[in-house]
Amino acid sequence: MRYAPVILVGRIVRVLARWRKPGGGSAVPGLVVNRLAPGFLSSVLNGFPDGLVIVSGSSGKSTTTKMLVAALRAHGVAVFTNQSTANISQGLTSALLEEVSLSGRIRGDMAVLEMDEGHGALISATLNPRVVALTNVMVDQIDRFHDSDMVVAMLARIANRASGTVVINADDASLTGLADHLDGPAAVARYGVTAEILAQNPRGLGYSVTASERMPPADGILLTTVSGRSASVLIGGASFDLDLPARGVHYAVDALTAIAAARAALGDRFDAATACAAVSTIPPVFGRGEIVTVRGHRVEFVLVQNPASFQLNVDSLEPGLDQVLVAIGSDVRDPSYFWPVDTSGLGRVLIASGSKAHDIALQLAYDGVVVDRIEPDLGRALEDFLALPDPEHGIKTIIFSADSMRRTRAHLGLASNREG
């Protein structure tokens, strides 16, 4: 009960924050509680009977976490997770305050949490995860970290805390190197894609090795085919079909990560068919290929957070879309970060918007994309874009960075988070 007073304070702060800013302020209670009781977060997370599972890496964390939770719940496991996709320490603490009792405990067998690489490394020394699943290392995250070695070092700090299994993408050279030098007691489980899939997606995956081709099929999980929103995987020598939440091989790789992590967390209880069926039910997560209806129009939201996701998403869009809006916001501090992306497949963009509207319009122009209009005011751009009649080909498509995504959803009155 030693945390009861601080839990009460956190809940009061949560009410006040939501009263002052409806739909926002979700991290404020976590900031307050972490300041008052630094040990609260680790105490709760280390208290689940079946342990803690951490999902981290440069990209794919949110979708992977949703899929993993679904797979575990399909096996009858009661799971606590950070449903709002908040993945830094104050966000995690705020998520705990939603369900924790005054005694500092949460009902559930297992916790599955998405963690930002940097914040996860900061708090990893106090955590005792049973399974750590690592998605990838994006070597060009220059807008967040100095270089890829820094990202690898942070992920290694998290992975070395695992007591059971570290799950890695065997096609990512940085992760295979990390796995070869783990200091902790955990075993390593691998998943990967076939050489054919690598050849079909040479621009976007960013993999520099094909270790999956050397993996014994009985040991790893292998992605064998991807077509639109469908995929096939090889698990223990048997093939299973998957439905994906959005188009693109990157979503299929997220599914592989989730299935491999579920197998590591469940052990002998794991059933491949059950896991694949559960993963296939996941809808798009918070802007990642999400299709919403706004003012009578169907609109697809496409979130791009790094060059690899930008490339894969552009390549996965239906060719010849009539109405595309691209909005890059203040979260992309150095717009040259996106210049390696080949955006020529877009063909035409009706509006370039966001605080970096002129920068993204210049890149599009250099790639031969026709940009009809540059409108830095995102609210005005959205109003004009939605006022257009439905396109003759495809649906209205908005490609945005995280900052512009939040501003778009706020302007349109959409929920700030997608839960479930």
From TrEMBL:
The keyword Hydrolase belongs to this UniProt entry's keyword annotation: no
Organism domain of life: Bacteria
Domain Lipid II isoglutaminyl synthase (glutamine-hydrolyzing) subunit MurT C-terminal: 303-383
EC category: ligase
Gene3D superfamilies found in the cross-reference section: Mur-like, catalytic domain
Keyword Cell inner membrane: no
A Pfam family: Mur_ligase_M
Pathway in which this enzyme or protein is active: Cell wall biogenesis; peptidoglycan biosynthesis
InterPro entries: Lipid_II_synth_MurT, Mur-like_cat_sf, Mur_ligase_cen, MurT_C
Keyword line: ATP-binding, Cell shape, Cell wall biogenesis/degradation, Ligase, Metal-binding, Nucleotide-binding, Peptidoglycan synthesis
A biological process term (GO) from this entry: regulation of cell shape
Reaction it catalyzes: beta-D-GlcNAc-(1->4)-Mur2Ac(oyl-L-Ala-gamma-D-Glu-L-Lys-D-Ala-D-Ala)-di-trans,octa-cis-undecaprenyl diphosphate + ATP = beta-D-GlcNAc-(1->4)-Mur2Ac(oyl-L-Ala-gamma-D-O-P-Glu-L-Lys-D-Ala-D-Ala)-di-trans,octa-cis-undecaprenyl diphosphate + ADP; beta-D-GlcNAc-(1->4)-Mur2Ac(oyl-L-Ala-gamma-D-O-P-Glu-L-Lys-D-Ala-D-Ala)-di-trans,octa-cis-undecaprenyl diphosphate + NH4(+) = beta-D-GlcNAc-(1->4)-Mur2Ac(oyl-L-Ala-D-isoglutaminyl-L-Lys-D-Ala-D-Ala)-di-trans,octa-cis-undecaprenyl diphosphate + phosphate + H(+); beta-D-GlcNAc-(1->4)-Mur2Ac(oyl-L-Ala-gamma-D-Glu-L-Lys-D-Ala-D-Ala)-di-trans,octa-cis-undecaprenyl diphosphate + L-glutamine + ATP + H2O = beta-D-GlcNAc-(1->4)-Mur2Ac(oyl-L-Ala-D-isoglutaminyl-L-Lys-D-Ala-D-Ala)-di-trans,octa-cis-undecaprenyl diphosphate + L-glutamate + ADP + phosphate + H(+)
Domain Mur ligase central: 55-261
Sample GO molecular function, one term: metal ion binding
Enzyme Commission code(s) on record: 6.3.5.13
Quaternary structure and interacting proteins, as annotated: Forms a heterodimer with GatD.
PANTHER family to which the protein is assigned, alphabetical: LIPID II ISOGLUTAMINYL SYNTHASE (GLUTAMINE-HYDROLYZING) SUBUNIT MURT, MUR LIGASE FAMILY MEMBER
HAMAP family per the UniProt record, alphabetical: Lipid_II_synth_MurT (MF_02214)
Role summary: The lipid II isoglutaminyl synthase complex catalyzes the formation of alpha-D-isoglutamine in the cell wall lipid II stem peptide. The MurT subunit catalyzes the ATP-dependent amidation of D-glutamate residue of lipid II, converting it to an isoglutamine residue.
Protein family (similarity comment): Belongs to the MurCDEF family. MurT subfamily.
Name of the protein in question: Lipid II isoglutaminyl synthase (glutamine-hydrolyzing) subunit MurT
Source species of the chain: Cryobacterium zhongshanensis
